[in-house]
Amino acid sequence: MDRQRSVGRGVILAAVLGLTGTVLGMPAAAAGPGDEPAPPVEWGECPEDVPDDLAQLQCATVPVPLDYSDPDGEQIEIMISRLASKNPDKRRGVLLLNPGGPGGTGLDQPNFLSTQGMPASVLDSYDLIGMDTRGVGHSTPVSCGFAGDQEYAGNIPPYAVDDAGVADQAAIAQGVAEQCAANDDEGRLRHLSTANIARDLDRIRAALGEEKASFLGYSYGTALGAAYASMFPERADRIVLDSNIGDTHLDHDGMRRYGQGMEETFPDFEKWAAARHDAYGLGSTPEEVRETYFTLAERLDEAPVEGINGQVFRLATFATLYREASYGGMAQYWQSLLHSEAPVSNAQTDPVAPSPHDNSWSVFLAVTCNDVEWPEDVETYQRAVAEDREQHPLYGAAAANITPCAYWQEPLEPPVAVNDDGPTNVLIVQNQRDPVTPLRGGELLDEKFGDRSRLVNVDGSGHGVYVLGDNPCALNITTKYLVDGTMPQKNLTCDAA
């Protein structure tokens, strides 16, 4: 029982952490940060907490302006990592990487993708460059001061069963926004935005001595890559955007698509569990498995088990859909909850201890809230929750719920507009069934880029396609583009593996 509970809590953590041309209003002095002289990069050992079992990585820091409207003002540091090409004759440049978020570390990303099966031709063609983006980890970190016992569920708001649930969450969200503002003694949070991170990318490109930079980004990394390709079309080389949120930023509509994504992906788990009814007892048909989900969620709404309520159960199930490899652990967890009569846990978290997620949650909020204005009135969220509870009953009433962005200070500049005037150099790769970035996100971004992009529509399930998935068609198309520059002539579909 304890092992099964730990499986569920591990899945919950994955969900909490895992989730997102001309820039209007950008000062002229900051229009071309890559044109400024860049100090040379001095490579050395990476911090001890950066996973690198094969001892392949080197790390360095690159100074960038906190505020690009004041380029000679306060400087912050961005730590980057490098997995260098071992074949100088085939090396063609650098491939900047972003694993998503915003808020997660990316220093280990070159090593991670290498161990996951990044093709040797790509490893020969590029130095893979990972990084902690501004505010994250080893890059002049920021903090909202989240405590271990704080009543805040993380990046995705909790499921609201009614209007009162939205109102309750509004009070928590307002408190979090005020806490972040009060804890920002050095005034750095306001300068965390996708536009500024894209400017940082171009500073990194210049510091590495490269005329152009290629980019591979997953999830929120697609917003960052879209922004970089839009702001610096002449310096963006080959751009791959995998598992797309649909724009250069995450807004309320984008987060509401989480509900759509779960509805489209959950049938894969339904079929998997129904085929294993003899082992797990969750239902002998997909329809019965779906009914078990609602039964458990409503039961846990009324009587939590060992601290797991309906909100947490829904979040854990949502996170399970990221990878089919998680299905077995979640099926065991459902099974234990179906037959458990354990009381609510009275265990208390140390109220003094900081949350281990403080930095990642703080960066997610700052970037998401600074990128674009969010609705400010509670009634807007109550209407959205009511609509999505009906349209996307599995998870819509969570994804549409209110976040601290409703109470955040106004953004310093408008969101980056997708620039469709440039080279055809944006390859958009997208699973048809993805819980957090559904197919519609890839379609939207492809529509906005117009002739600059091609969409590879993959008959697959889960979050992440290139290297992270198992579709040979998508792997080959993306690899050929990165290595040879072969872009599909038109949008295409990859059949299921």
Summarize the structure.
InterPro entries: AB_hydrolase_1, AB_hydrolase_fold, Serine_prot/Carboxylest_S33. This protein is an alpha/beta fold and 497 residues long.
Describe the structure.
The protein has a single domain, classed as Alpha/Beta hydrolase fold, catalytic domain (Rossmann fold). With 497 residues, it is α/β, with parallel strands linked by helices. The radius of gyration is 22 Å and the shape is globular. Helix 7 (252-274) packs across helix 9. The protein is built from 16 helices and nine strands. Helix 6 (220-231) links the parallel strand 5 and strand 6 (236-242). Residues 1-34 and 343-348 have low confidence and may be disordered. It has a nine-stranded mixed β-sheet with strand order 1-2-4-3-5-6-7-8-9, sandwiched between helices.
Helix content: 40-55%
User: What's the helix-strand series?
Assistant: HEEEHHEHHEHEHHHHHHHHEHEHE
Task: Kindly report the CATH topology.
Answer: Rossmann fold
The rounded Rg comes to 22 Å
For the largest beta sheet, what order do the strands appear in spatially?
Answer: 1-2-4-3-5-6-7-8-9
Mean pLDDT, rounded to whole units? 91
Family: Belongs to the peptidase S33 family.
Keywords: Hydrolase, Signal
Domain AB hydrolase-1: 94-468
Protein name: Alpha/beta hydrolase family protein
Write the SSE topology.
Blueprint: H1 2-18, E1 58-65, E2 75-83, E3 93-98, H2 109-116, H3 120-125, E4 126-132, H4 163-183, H5 194-207, E5 213-218, H6 220-231, E6 236-242, H7 252-274, H8 277-280, H9 286-302, H10 310-320, H11 327-338, H12 358-371, H13 378-391, H14 396-399, E7 426-433, H15 439-449, E8 453-461, H16 472-484, E9 492-494
Parallel strand pairs: 3-4, 3-5, 5-6, 6-7, 7-8, 8-9
Antiparallel strand pairs: 1-2, 2-4
Helix pairs in contact: 1-10, 1-11, 4-13, 5-6, 7-9, 9-10
